[in-house]
Write a structure and sequence with these properties.
Largest sheet: 5 strands, parallel
Radius of gyration: 51 Å
Helix content: 40-55%
Strand content: 5-15%
Structural class: alpha/beta
């Protein structure tokens, strides 16, 4: 883009640019790869546009550059055009007078009733769908309605063409550019919809090809507009709730057909011609187009017969071999009148027939008459358009012309499409030269969009790449972005087939920029990454930098889209009343039925063997008062949507279950909750039946607690000042083997606990920190006896070990003189320890 700065169009033309071909040159241009480049004819056509929040610089050399709008450069709301500006715009957009013989004025016959109804409905603000077959005179009727509705709407009458549009985006953009004075600006979708909503105009939409949801979207976007939609019966109908009036066009009556035929011929019809016209009306169902073509057949017949009469008046010379018998050209047959394209084409000039071949090669699109001398090679070929239009072989579509309905098929059957590939290649190379010239404005290229796209579709890959490379920047600068996208996609495919990597990278870059302008971020990222990869392989630094800048904007937009909207809290409807009565209770006050069981403080030795130590530590806090905090009810501030609302769930810190806990883990969880639990909305499910193994383990844990308490009492009684008696049973110094009783949590793989053996005699006392139960005879203890040091305070006397009971059946002697209460305590411990074995 740097090499084009500081240059003017005149400097570029003097440096080697040339003007487009004018009638009279006689030679068609011979463009090549060098002449098609924009710099071959002068400066590159750089255009700066405003696309939404971006500034788009269309650069045909390295690719378009896009950047955010700079602060202070934002445009305000554009003003609407006044009546004088609308009239000037319509005059400029009107098709200029065609060179050649003036066309005949075609009267509007037999449509007075439809015209009055259409004007009456549009004046009431109603939208109407005018349905009629091709050739029924819809465009002529729209011209008459537009003349009568000029002053009904505040924004006047807007004429649009719906040919080739399947979505309403481009139609809305065209309507916006027609009503508002906003050159070089293409607003984003939201802003576009906001601006077209204020347009109040009567929109005449000819050749409509969309219906259903697409048409409903167009109508909803412009509620202040009244539409007159001209379409064919095979077009999809609008939805039932669109409230569009339907007006159908039928064929003309016999009298109207004869009058139209006389107006086209310029003389009254003979009886034979009147009868022929009646038969033609029956065959063609009274379509006006058929009688326009029939009038052309009669005019050609008159010219041929009149020429023969003039020749007969002159005496032939000696060497003249003309026949003396005059031959009259008969009336066309009924088949020729119903399909007259072949007969009409055979009687027109050679330039007109060449133009018909070009139109068949371009899918029915006829180039502008200024291009025909270069395409045909005849200096007077520009008069062919007027000649074909008078014959009824062409029909106007907006500001251009294309073959009438059924003409292309009839001409292809007689060989007019045999040279389609050569004609399309010639047209593509001509348009590649013309669209890349610096003197051609983007608006002129946009007016020729259909012919350019048709030439691009029928050309070979080399010509297609050249044409797409030069036409794409022109379509971008003219804001005709639908044609821009189609050209870019066709050019990328042609470049891939031709192996042009640099051109393929350019097309993908432009597709990424276009997708970014339209808000399609996923497509923009894919296209730009493809372009950056291709340009990286070519070591194109400038193109790579431009692609990375555009990709950075895509990343910024994705980050902005991914950001969540502000969160607003709203209480659920079902819990709005219940949340007012909820309170938060501190975990220290969560008393459970199992906590009062442990109330003794000196249980530190037991905490080393049993995992219930946390239970004893939490016991002193169970009697403190419960501090509570009131939760204020949450009231929604205003109406909130379902997308941006985070619903609040009331939370309580304690699981207030109606069933008592069955395991130590549940007791620990109730006393010291790890995390608050949400309030369950559904009805609580019944607790499952407690497992028998868990009950046994829980009973064993209680028994161990009682044993520990009994041991403490026995030690307290044994440490009194009384001396032991002199007589007593023999005392053994061998300590009895004891199995440490460890309360383990129940798991699915743990075996059932072994029942404890019978208690020792009264003379035996258990040491603190050891279990009072002896191992069962015949079984191996599950664990090695603990040899940890005793936790007995140093001031207490050491406990005496008692020998095990004898194995004989005789009872052991017991002294009666002593009053030591240790046997009683031993009996209590024995009875308590044996209770789990007698259970279930």
């Amino acid at each position: 883009m740097d090499r084009t700065q500081g240059q003017t169009e005149q400097d570029g033309q003097s440096a080697g640019g040339s003007a487009p071909p004018v009638p009279g040159s006689g030679q068609a241009p011979a463009p090549s790869a060098t002449t098609a480049a924009p710099t071959a004819h002068g400066p590159a056509r750089v255009v700066t546009l405003t696309a939404g929040d971006f500034t788009l610089t269309v650069n045909p050399v390295d690719g378009s550059e896009i950047e955010p709008l700079r602060p202070g450069t934002e445009r305000g709301r554009p003003a609407k055009r006044d009546a004088a500006a609308r009239t000037a715009r319509e005059t400029a957009a009107r098709v200029p007078a065609l060179p050649g013989p003036g066309g005949l004025i075609r009267p509007l016959l037999g449509r007075e009733e439809e015209q009055e109804r259409l004007v009456r409905l549009l004046a009431r603000g109603r939208s109407v769908r005018l349905t009629g077959p091709s050739g029924s005179g819809r465009s002529v009727l729209l011209d008459a309605v537009a003349a009568r509705c000029a002053g009904l709407a505040p924004d006047g009458v807007v004429r649009l063409s719906g040919y080739g549009h399947q979505q309403p985006a481009e139609l809305l953009q065209t309507l916006y550019a027609t009503v508002y004075e906003a050159p070089g600006e293409r607003p984003e979708r939201d802003e576009l919809l906001a601006r077209v909503r204020d347009i109040g105009a009567i929109v005449l939409l000819d050749d409509l090809e969309m219906g259903g949801p697409a048409l409903d979207e167009l109508l909803r976007a412009t509620p202040e507009c009244a539409y007159l939609l001209a379409t064919t019966p095979d077009t999809r109908s609008p939805s039932d709730d669109s409230h569009i009036e339907e007006v159908f066009l039928t064929g003309l009556a016999k009298a109207d057909c004869v009058e139209l035929l006389e107006a086209g011929v310029g003389r009254p019809l003979t009886d034979e011609e009147t009868a022929w016209a009646g038969d033609l009306r029956f065959a063609s169902e009274g379509l006006p187009l058929r009688f326009v073509q029939a009038a052309a057949l009669l005019r050609q017949r008159d010219e041929l017969n009149h020429s023969a009469e003039e020749d007969d008046e002159e005496e032939p010379g000696v060497f003249d071999e003309r026949p003396r018998d005059r031959v009259q050209v008969p009336l066309p047959t009924l088949a020729e009148g119903a399909a007259p394209a072949e007969l009409l084409a055979s009687r027109v000039s050679e330039s007109a027939r060449a133009a018909l071949r070009i139109a068949c090669a371009l899918g029915g699109e006829l180039p502008h008459h200024a291009h025909l001398p270069a395409l045909v090679g005849d200096t007077h070929a520009d008069t062919a358009v007027a000649e074909l239009l008078a014959c009824g072989l062409l029909t106007p579509v907006g500001t251009r012309h294309r073959l009438a309905a059924g003409v292309a098929r009839q001409l292809e059957e007689v060989g007019y499409g045999d040279t389609a590939a050569e004609e399309a290649r010639t047209a593509a190379r001509h348009y590649a030269w013309w669209t890349g010239h610096a003197s051609v404005t983007p608006e002129r290229v946009a007016a020729e969009a259909d012919a350019v796209l048709a030439a691009l579709a029928g050309a070979d890959v080399v010509a297609a790449v050249l044409l797409a490379r030069t036409a794409a920047p022109a379509f971008a600068g003219s804001l005709h972005w639908e044609a821009w996208e189609r050209v870019l996609r066709s050019g990328a495919e042609a470049a891939r087939k031709a192996g042009e990597v640099a051109e393929q990278a350019y097309f993908h870059h432009e597709l990424g920029v276009l997708a970014l302008c339209e808000g399609r971020l996923d497509r923009a990222r894919a296209e730009l990454e493809t372009s950056i990869g291709l340009r990286g392989a070519l070591a194109d630094k400038r193109g790579t930098v431009a692609g990375r800048r555009a990709l950075a904007l895509v990343v910024d937009r994705e980050t902005a889209v991914a950001a969540s909207p502000p969160l607003r809290l709203e209480a659920p409807a079902a819990l709005a009343a219940a949340s007012e009565a909820l309170t938060v209770v501190t975990p220290a006050t969560s008393g459970t039925p199992a906590t009062p069981a442990a109330s003794s403080a000196p249980t530190a030795p037991l905490a080393k063997a049993a995992p219930t130590a946390p239970l004893t530590k939490a016991a002193p806090a169970a009697n403190r008062p419960a501090p509570s905090t009131r939760i204020a009810p949450v009231v929604p501030v205003g109406p909130v949507s379902a997308e941006a609302v985070t619903r609040m769930t009331p939370v309580v810190p304690v699981n207030r279950s109606a069933e008592p806990p069955t395991t130590l883990s549940e007791v620990f969880e109730d006393a010291f909750p790890l995390s608050p639990k949400p309030v369950a909305l559904a009805a609580p499910k019944p607790a499952p039946a407690p497992d028998r193994r868990r009950l046994v383990l829980l009973a064993g844990a209680g028994a161990l607690t009682v044993v520990a308490l009994g041991t403490v009492v026995a030690l307290a009684l044994g440490s009194s000042d009384d001396t032991p008696p002199e007589q007593g049973p023999a005392v053994s110094s061998t300590p009895s083997a004891a199995v440490p009783s460890t309360a383990r949590g129940s798991s699915g793989n743990d075996p059932a606990p072994e029942p404890p053996a019978a208690s020792a005699p009264a003379s035996e006392a258990a040491q603190p920190g050891q279990s009072a139960a002896a191992p069962t005879p015949g079984r191996t203890p599950g664990r090695t006896p603990s040899r940890r040091p005793s936790a007995t305070p140093p001031n207490s006397p050491p406990p005496s070990s008692v020998s095990p009971p004898p194995t004989t059946a005789g009872p052991s002697p017991t002294p009666t003189e002593t009053t030591e209460p240790s046997p009683t305590a031993t009996q209590v411990v024995t009875a308590t320890a044996a209770s789990p074995t007698a259970g279930p």
